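Folded chain entry —
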Amino acid sequence: MSAVSSGRRTVHRVCTLCEANCGLSFEVEDNRILQVRPDEDDPFSRGFACPKGIAIAKIHDDPDRLRSPVKRNAHGEFEPIGWEEALDHAASGLARVRDAHGAQSVATYFGNPIIHNHGAVMLRSAVMQALGTRNNYGASSQDTSPRFATSYYLYGSALVTPVPDIDRTAYMLCVGANPIVSNGSAMTSPDVKGRMRAIRERGGRIVIVDPRRTESVREADEHVAIRPGTDSGFLLGMAAILVREGLARVDRVRRVASGWDEVERRLRALDLDACARVTGVSLQTMERLAREFVAAPTSVAYSRVGVCNGHFGTLATYATDLLNVVAGRLGEVGGIMFPTPALDAVRVLRLTGGDGHGRFRSRVRGLPETIGEIPSAGLADEIETPGEGQVRALLTFAGNPVLSTPNGRRLDRALASLDFMVAIDLYVNETTRHANVILPPAWALAEEHYDLLFPQFMVRNVVRRSPPVVEPGPGEKHDWEILLALARRLGGGPAGMPAVDRVLNLAERLGLTKWSPRPLLSFLLRSGAWGDGYLPWKKGLTMKDLDAAERGIDLGPLQPGVSRRVFHRDRKAALAPAVLMQEWDAFVASLAKPVPADELLLVGRREQRTNNSWMHNVPAMVAGSERCVLLMHPADAAEREVHDGEAIVMESRVYRGEVRVKLSDEMARGVVSLPHGWGHAAAARWQKVAGATPGVSINDWTDESVAENVVGQSILNGTPVRVFPRAASDDRVRAVG
């Protein structure tokens, strides 16, 4: 499929910058994007788009974006080279390290944008198979592994996740999430603000539990402040109250889940007074909310990154689902429901053997994998620690771990010591500046797009194919073409399965076929829940239907039921898996520890005009007042003699540095907050706009040595810090780790 390169036309396409999947309308003439606006007729987003979506063409047109490969020369400078030379150089450098030091000496890091790229998702396993390494790291171990592990143990697959039926619920309990700014993480729902307002307009109620009075609180009925990292106590406490007061929907629980007797025993034994003390939420408040939750005609509990990033992130994610189960809301209209995706990424994950948790562990710290990914907090250890399997080469795909992983300064130093590094990326950034060769893709707007991953999380069943908005520039390659070229040069093929790859490679050499993502997508569609099953008499979706649907196909609201999306043999959710019961025991033991009286805890926050660590090179996204500031409650500031707007010094175990403070009573006492994704000073020469407003990276202060027990995820929320006036500090700001 190719865009028409001449004449003025309107192209309707889904936005691929975040999970919301909003519809956009592009005015295009002579392969130039003239205007971007929300698509008023999109059946899913209904004319909504956030500022990032409206600015998407600015990324495509960014003069600082790479458009051809670059190679680091003998003087350490990047210079342009041709594609064949670049691909040969990249593959030979990786192969040279692999052949000299073994397959595990090569690592990969896949960043967040891969989830918006159907071709790259399909080829990730092919690259890993070709390299022969298990040292795969990525963004999901920073914010999603607890959700994946919970889904794997409860429902039998990491990508089977029930989502809030937000359009039909009467009561929404939102814990550790800011959906109005995130646009619904793990809850693909354009215009969350409009959907939340609709809950209240139909007489419903919204409660937000968060250490900060976030943007979402403005659309809620109640805000409950909670101590960071203690969400397990709040959620398990609510479930325990339902059990003890006889409000649990036990008959419903037994119909949809196994392991209830074990869970009920644990809930009855839970110390609710200790839960209240640790969380900072009174027992009376928990009791009232629990009664409201179960008494509502429909209700749903939803949690996200703030919960995942805590010390008991997996247990707290599990506790969110457990509360829904205990209240009889799993698989019910208005509760948490399973989407029925037309393009089912679960099948891709299971076909390539990626589904699972704890099947192997990292060499140095023994951190467990989750769906084939090792926690990124351990990457610096693997590079710095000598011995068999020491990481000496790295391939990154659309990732910036120097800004997105804990103690990023340490990782920055480690990357400089690598023997060889390849980056597939649009920019020279804080991470890719260490690469020997950078391979820039044509980027999203020049390629057709299929929603492959997000139908697993959509609040309506929708399937879409988006056409390319413009044609690629001369010589540009798509992401999947780059990955496929590397895989083949490294001895692999597109399937990531040697026997299949031999057949596909032979067929291509004979001129019988040429691999692309589309045939596999066609197979997934036709053989899936909404497809025709390749039966001539059966009505169902085919690629022809999808190609003809200008704005996609709305397949309707989520359907009740559980068994059709649960992969355990009994088709029931497993409530008492051993690994989570062990973590429950660890949490109960932690309740006996005292809560420090004067501790400050650092948490992150998301911004509406920020897309993780990028989009800061788009002028409209950084215009206005300074946003990379530390929010702090006025009373905490007064105690520490710091003042609004001044640069102060903040210290954690790993770093001591300056940051500007902004006093705000939206913060709970004892909690300070920095937005993530900033810290662009090192890349200023290549990204001029971002370099003019660099900010600081919150992950300079977070501690890579502390990891969550079940999945080994980084603890990015709740980092203990100290704050003092700059004048009262040392004469110089120094790193301490």
Q: What stands out?
A: The first strand starts at residue 9 and ends at 14. Residues 606-728 form a domain with the Barwin-like endoglucanases fold (CATH 2.40.40.20). The radius of gyration is 25 Å. Confidence is low (pLDDT under 50) at residues 731-737.
